[in-house]
């Protein structure tokens, strides 16, 4: 697939359109649910007590991002969830959430669970980052 640069009538090319914008629908009347973004990291004794790694409590050292979405009066079977590298798209009959994620994630290996007693969907996604002086393992 090649983008033809000869066509001067185009306003933008496909590289300029942000990922996830195909889901954006300003005319959709469904309300956005409450949500919370949390960061999770694995630490061991060597990190906490001995300081042997370069990990700190910042989000730069977190391996996972957890999104908790409140979905009152929703059944698990009514939830449609689509995850891309930088976008989470959730739809139910009454709610809609298009969330641009703070970090690029591994969209193929996430986990989602619906806590029916709390009426909350919990989505855990592994952050995909380049290796640097902190994230080297």
UniProtKB/TrEMBL annotation:
**Name of this protein:** PIHD3 protein
Q: Which GO terms describe its cellular component?
A: cytoplasm
The record's section on PANTHER family has:
DYNEIN AXONEMAL ASSEMBLY FACTOR 6, TWISTER
Q: Which Pfam families match?
A: PIH1_CS
Q: Identify its protein family.
A: Belongs to the PIH1 family.
* Gene designation: Pih1d3
Q: In this protein, which residues make up the domain named PIH1D1/2/3 CS-like?
A: 32-127
BP terms from Gene Ontology: axonemal dynein complex assembly; flagellated sperm motility
A GO MF term: protein-folding chaperone binding
């Amino acid at each position: 697939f090649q983008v033809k640069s000869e066509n001067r009538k185009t306003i933008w090319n496909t590289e300029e359109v942000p990922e996830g914008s195909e889901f954006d629908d300003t005319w959709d009347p469904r309300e956005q649910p409450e949500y919370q973004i949390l960061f999770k990291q694995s630490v061991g004794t060597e990190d906490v007590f001995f300081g042997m790694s370069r990990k700190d409590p910042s989000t730069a050292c977190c391996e996972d991002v957890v999104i908790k979405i409140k979905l009152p009066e929703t059944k698990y079977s009514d939830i449609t969830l689509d995850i891309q590298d930088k976008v989470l798209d959730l739809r139910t009959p009454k709610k809609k959430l298009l969330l641009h994620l703070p970090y690029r994630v591994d969209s193929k290996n996430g986990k989602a669970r619906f806590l029916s007693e709390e009426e909350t969907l919990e989505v855990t996604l592994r952050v995909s980052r380049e290796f640097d002086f902190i994230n080297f393992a």
